[in-house]
Amino acid sequence: MTRYAGAVIGMAAVALVVAYLAFGWPVLLVGGPLLVGVAITLLALVLTERPRQVLRERRAALAGDSPWRQAAERGEPSAGGLMSGFFEVSPQATMLPEQRLAPSQDARRTGAR
Fold this sequence. Notes:
Structural class: mainly alpha
């Protein structure tokens, strides 16, 4: 994570230098604060990654394996879950041919006047 953060800050700095060389000092009015914002955001992510990883490991140790994880490891679709059945189309009742309504006697044919 730290290497990626360094690469992102480096690319942002190079982009700012290239923009400065191409367009002049007004680029620094926008690019400078953006570079500082990127650096602060990435610093916060790097500093909070380790505590989040420890918390994730602690929760995994306390909860054990979930049925979803076990099914995914076996390559099976899970039997249920939060969105189970949400995307399934419910079966529609089909009408048998003898149950269909016949057209009325007053019905006109298409195109007839």
